[in-house]
Automatic annotation (TrEMBL):
GO molecular function, one term: metal ion binding
Cofactor(s) of this protein: Zn(2+)
Boundaries of every tRNA synthetases class I catalytic domain copy: 58-465
Name assigned to this protein: cysteine--tRNA ligase
Length: 760
């Protein structure tokens, strides 16, 4: 990195700079270039820019090339869908930039493998595993005493009181989690008292034990391989998750641990320029000096500039009270003096490690230089992380506009709260992919604006699945109709064809407008759905035997092209044979052997079906029995081969090559629905049988014993020789009106009893 390079993009620090607007955040952004200039790279696109809170014309600094830095994961645990919200959203935007607008995007993403969260989690996991192993072989004197001490030291009461004062949905969720943590630890302690196993008790108290062990022994963890092994594990998981989601890899992947030299050099340059200072072996960024030099601090979130809580969180969980070391509360660490139990590197200021914010500045600058066209990250990183990045980089490069466009992906919510590890309300990407396909998750994101909140629920995922089904049916129908067309079919256009062509043209224009409007994928998906509806209207108007396949293909290719841009389908396989990427593609195969085996399988199935029909005909089977064989072929057998057979009113079925797993899932749903209907019918039949049995038991009672049935218990105390009651429960003679009513009941019973006798 050339420390002498001045930012050739923005305005170099100068008293006359128009950027100097009393640090009020006004006039702090300038268009990167003249969008109307020849070779400007402007293509009509406007993007929602967090720096301005407006949709600004997108003008890359260097023509068609787009330099984009994305804040990557802090690899201290498994990635969850909240992380996927940012990375999958940015993958969609990147694909639009590259495959729709034709930009040459150079994407760089970091892996944060040096961070307070990582240090804590790696130490805690290591110490906990070590403790449990020792306990299981009897090397821990008193596990119960340790758990009790861990519970006592966790500070449940103080934490609960602090959360109660906040009165926010997040604090309520954290309070519930806190209570669950305490309950689990206490249950583990109780199980030991009841002679339970140490392993189960230790696992139940894991959260409190890990914190307690780290407080006592964290400083003794000095082996850097412990931290490296931890981060490599979760980095590998993350990259595998991104591949499973179909996210394009960046052009460069940077790890903090491999850029420490660049971080030290950037820090030194900032200090040399008078915008940073050394204090007790740490180095801090001087926000006051930065603003005095004509810069604006907290461009992205000026309202958060003095937020003590946010500023403290930005310094990390391991940061001690550094207020005495700082000139100002807003100053932040560029370089941290390492304490015992923390990774450390040699530096001009002593052994230490990078501050969180400068890590991204140094890595982005090392690869992309003194200017970024786009910087992306989750909305929760806006302040202080991204604002501090901007300040450091502008201080280092000596400019006022290091980044032209800041994109912030919205939160992903579950049950009304932000999905996060701190709330333990997350679902890992791998867990999500056990329930839904990568395509369905991508469709979910496409149906919501990238910058807004997104609620992850069964309901929202059902909308994504419904869209997938709509698209699949459209492409498979088009593929079938195209295959069915014969040279003899008329190609003359009528009003229906003209109307469909107009709908295709309108959809093309509307999609273009939507994508130019800050990558509006929900609007785009709506336009595609409307075009599919227009195709269905056309089919109804002319009938499947009258459709013009060239026109259908025009519509299908356009929809497939946009879905290919979005990463929903692979354009290489968007053919009629594969149902435009939504069918099984089995017959297309990946080679002659593969396709031959599938053909043989299908022919064998048809041969068996023919044998069954012939056998039924010879046995003089009824039409219903033969139709049942046809239904079995359609519903049970062909789905195994990835073939969907749909009956039509014309009497000619539609054959579709569909995704086998989808067909089998639909078959399982039909079976489950049929089983539920049968179970419901059986339950009703059993209830009817029970009711009939109860009636038969009553009707079989001899008339003389009728009023001695359980339903009359406690009502009468005396009876005549025929079994008729004569006195009530208290021994009082029955009134005439009562005797009249009882006589009527007995006569009715006698009739039922006689009918019962006749049935025997």
């Amino acid at each position: 990195m050339d420390v002498n390079v001045e930012c050739t993009h923005g305005v170099v620090v100068a008293e006359s700079s128009s950027f100097m607007a009393d640090n009020s955040n006004e006039n702090h952004w300038a268009p990167p270039g003249d969008k109307d200039a020849v070779g400007s790279g402007y293509k009509g696109l406007h993007v929602l820019n967090t720096l301005t809170k407006n949709k600004d014309a997108f003008v890359p600094k260097n023509g068609n090339r787009v330099n984009w830095y994305i804040c990557g994961p802090t690899v201290y645990d498994s990635a969850h869908l909240g992380h996927a919200r940012a990375y999958l959203s940015f993958d969609i935007i990147r694909r639009i930039l590259e495959d729709y607008f034709g930009y040459d995007v150079h994407a760089v993403m970091n892996i944060t493998d040096v961070d307070d969260k990582i240090i804590l989690r790696a130490r805690q996991n290591y110490l906990f595993d070590e403790y449990k192993a020792a306990a299981l072989v009897g090397s821990v004197p008193d596990v119960a005493a340790d758990i009790a001490a861990a519970i006592e030291g966790y500070g449940f009461e103080a934490k609960a009181a602090e959360l109660a004062e906040q009165e926010t949905p997040e604090s309520v969720a954290k309070a519930k989690l806190l209570a669950a943590t305490k309950s689990s630890a206490e249950a583990g302690l109780a199980s030991l008292a009841a002679d339970g196993g140490a392993g189960e008790a230790i696992d139940a108290a894991r959260d409190v034990l890990a914190v307690w062990l780290d407080a006592a022994k964290g400083a003794s963890v000095t082996d850097l391989d412990i931290f490296a092994a931890h981060t490599r594990k979760y980095e590998t998981e993350y990259l595998e998750d991104m591949e499973a989601l179909g996210v394009r890899p960046p052009h460069a992947l940077t790890r903090v641990s491999e850029y420490v030299d660049e971080i030290i050099e950037m820090t030194a340059k900032i200090v040399e320029r008078g915008l940073g200072y050394v204090s007790n072996g740490s180095v801090y960024f001087a926000t006051g000096s930065f603003m005095d030099a004509g810069h604006v601090y907290a461009k992205l979130a000026p309202e958060m500039r003095d937020n003590a809580k946010a500023l403290a969180e930005g310094e990390g969980a391991l940061a001690a009270d550094s207020s005495s070391e700082k000139r100002s509360l807003a100053d932040f660490a560029l370089w941290k003096a390492s304490k015992a139990g923390e990774p450390a590197w040699d530096s001009p200021w002593g052994r230490g490690r990078p501050g969180w914010h400068i890590e991204c500045s140094a890595m982005a600058g090392a690869i992309l230089g003194d200017h970024l066209d786009i910087h992306g990250g989750g909305v929760d990183l806006k302040f202080p992380h991204h604002d501090n990045e901007l300040a450091q980089s502008e201080a280092y490069f000596g400019c006022h506009q290091w980044t032209s466009y800041f994109l912030h992906a919205g939160h992903l919510h579950i049950h009304g709260s932000k999905m996060s590890k701190s709330l333990k309300n997350f679902q890992t990407i791998r867990e999500a992919l056990e329930s839904y396909s990568a395509r369905q998750i991508r469709l979910l994101f496409l149906l919501h604006s990238w910058e807004g909140g997104l609620d992850y629920s069964n309901n929202s995922m059902q909308h994504a699945k419904d869209m997938e089904k709509k698209l699949r049916e459209f492409f498979l129908n088009v593929s079938t109709l195209v295959r069915e067309e014969t040279p003899a079919r008329s190609q003359k256009w009528g009003d229906a064809e003209v109307a469909l062509e107009s709908a295709i043209a309108a959809a093309t224009a509307d999609v273009d407008a939507a994508l130019k409007d800050s990558f509006d994928t929900p609007k785009t998906m709506h336009v595609l759905a409307d075009l599919i509806s227009a195709v269905n209207v056309y089919r109804s108007a002319v009938g499947d035997a009258g459709v013009k396949s060239y026109l259908l293909m025009q519509a299908a290719r356009f929809v497939a092209r946009i879905l290919g841009v979005f990463g929903v389908i692979d354009p290489l396989y968007a053919t009629v044979e594969t149902g435009f990427g939504f069918g099984s593609g089995a017959l297309a195969g990946t080679g002659d052997a593969g396709s031959s085996s599938v053909v043989v399988e299908i022919l064998t199935t048809l041969s068996k079906f023919r044998d069954a029909v012939r056998a039924g005909a010879r046995a003089k089977a009824s039409p219903g029995e033969l139709l049942a064989l046809c239904d079995e072929l359609r519903d049970e057998i062909l789905p195994e081969l990835g073939v969907r057979l749909e009956d039509r009113d014309t009497g000619v079925a539609i054959v579709k090559l569909d995704d086998r797993e989808t067909l089998l899932a639909e078959r399982d749903e039909r079976r489950a629905a049929r089983a539920a209907r049968e179970a419901n019918a059986a339950a009703k039949a059993a209830a009817r049988a029970a009711e009939q049995a109860a009636r038969d038991a009553r009707d079989s009672t001899p008339p003389a014993d009728f009023f001695r049935l359980p339903e009359f218990d406690g009502q009468f105390s005396a009876f005549d020789d025929g079994g008729m009651p004569t006195a009530d429960a208290d021994g009082e003679p029955l009134k005439k009106s009562k005797l009249k009513n009882l006589t009527k009941q007995l006569k009715t019973h006698v009739k039922k009893h006689n009918k019962w006798l006749a049935r025997q």
